[in-house]
Design goal:
elongated, four-stranded mixed β-sheet, 2 helices, 2 domains, single chain, Immunoglobulin-like, alpha+beta
């Protein structure tokens, strides 16, 4: 292949726009049972979460996503545009809320309390099922009374 033709092809290949896939080494952090708003630079058409049991993402509008932590751990998040091209590929880390949370062990049973400033039961993964059921029933009773 003549040198000028090879140079021309190289210039053309370099000038063709390729989709940029942002793969960030720093994970996006969200706390379990909490939501976080993510703003992106390009419109998203599809979001894929590697493990939907760890986190969930919904498209609020094409450039605003809502990330919700569901369970502790890590997963990945892939965002695609309308053509199916990747916009972003990043890690998501779901952590436990630490501030104001007290863990109480009664034998093998674990319960969690949110103490800010008065301690109230909260539902956390790994807590005793009976305790969590009572906390949920109490919350539902208060919610039904408010409606």
């Amino acid at each position: 292949m003549p040198r000028t033709l090879a140079t021309t092809l190289l210039i053309i290949a370099v000038s063709i726009p390729f989709p940029i896939m942002a793969q960030d080494a720093t994970p996006i952090t969200v706390q379990a049972n909490m939501a976080r708003v993510l703003r992106i630079n390009a419109p998203a058409a599809t979001v894929i979460v590697g493990n939907p049991g760890v986190a969930d993402v919904t498209i609020q509008d094409p450039q605003t996503l809502v990330l919700t932590g569901k369970s502790y751990g890590q997963t990945n998040l892939i965002i695609l545009d309308a053509m199916g091209e990747p916009i972003a590929d990043t890690l998501v880390e779901v952590t436990q809320l630490q501030a104001g949370v007290m863990t109480v062990y009664q034998g093998l049973n674990r319960t969690s309390l949110s103490c800010a400033p008065v301690c109230q039961p909260v539902v956390m993964m790994g807590d005793d099922a009976n305790f969590s059921g009572q906390a949920l029933a109490s919350a539902q009773l208060v919610q039904s009374a408010a409606n």
